[in-house]
Task: structure prediction
Amino acid sequence: MEQQTEKTNPGKKLVAIRVRGITGIRTKIEDNLRMLRLYRKNYCCVLPNMPIYSGMLKRAKDYITWGEIDDETFNMLVEKRGEEFNGRETDSKGKIKYNDFVVINNKKIKKYFRLNPPRKGFGRKGIKHPYQNGGALGYRGDAINDLIKKMV
Result:
């Protein structure tokens, strides 16, 4: 059995989607998912391809799926599911900056996306098995783009 490994390419962006819910999750993994902004099931976040994020994704591999996103899929995700950020940029005194948004095309957009469940499901074995064995969890590589298109 050949296992797919993740390559680090600084030009590509990683995208992570939370597949499983919140019940029975360990505290460290829950905190890890909160830092990735994957608050609920079917939430998606786009991350830079850095070793620190790769370690966080590998720790939460039993609850998420991730891979490299291409530009076409990213633009579609921002266009269809990007929510406008209406919060404050700084506090009233101007001392604290809030980094809860990303500026894309001169619009302030939240750093996470809320997606629908995928049309025709995650796969033949469901959400409790790794992607390499026919399930939905873990590293997908470029196949994450197909999943995102099914969820948008």
